[in-house]
Amino acid sequence: MANKQVGIFVGSLRKESFNRKIANYIIENHPEGYDFRIIEIGELAMYNQDYDDSPSQPSNYSSFREEVKALDAVLFVTPEYNRSMPAVLKNAIDIASRPYGKSVWNGKPGGVISSSIGAIGGFGSNHHLRQSLVFVNVLTLAQPEMYIGNVGDSFDDSGKLTNEDTAKYLKKFLEAYINWVELINAKK
């Protein structure tokens, strides 16, 4: 049987993004029976409803929607920008949810990890993202919540996760996330 495909959507485009480092750690330490990969969102044109039924829509809209549609589950790893999610992440959610009635997010199991260089670990971003995911019907894991505070202290200069507490926290979250994905997919 083929491995389940999980797309990771990283909310930061920064070259040395801690969120990309978190995503890469997950990819390197993925559970058996699953393949995790980053779905790139930085090159997507800003969503415009005029594109919904237009042959002149950006070429990557269609391929992005097909890539999301093929996933068994989704995972969002995001920083916090001004107490909310980054625009690039919201844009990706909007593109894959349209045209109206044709959302490719519908019914997918999901999870959210947020991080911050501050102590509260991207709490505002995490919850704003969850609001959008509720509307597009991504069935998002409620517990355990995953906030990584002081994320800058978790990685060495080469991008390797060195904080044992963060590694344990991620392992616990991933176990719960996989159980959630299995539960949701069993009901389909």
Question: Can you walk me through this structure?
Answer:
By secondary structure, the chain is of the alpha/beta class. Helix content is 36%, strand content 16%. It is built from five helices and six strands. Strands 1, 2, 3, 4, 5 and 6 form a six-stranded parallel β-sheet that branches. The longest helix has 23 residues. It is globular and about 50 Å long. The mean pLDDT is 95.
Please state the CA-atom Rg, rounded to the nearest Å.
16 Å
**Pattern of helices and strands:** EHEHEHEHEEH
What is the overall shape? globular
How does the helix and strand content classify structurally? Answer: alpha/beta
Helix content: 25-40%
Please report the total strand number as a whole number: 6
Number of helices: 5
Mean pLDDT score, rounded? Answer: 95
Characterize the main sheet: 6 strands, parallel
Residue stretches low in confidence (pLDDT < 50, at least 5 long) are none
Spatial separation of the terminal alpha carbons:
17 Å
Proportion in β-strands: 15-25%
Q: What would you say about this model in short?
A:
This protein has about 190 residues and is an alpha/beta fold.
Core attributes:
six-stranded parallel beta sheet; alpha/beta; 6 strands; globular; 36% helix; 188 residues
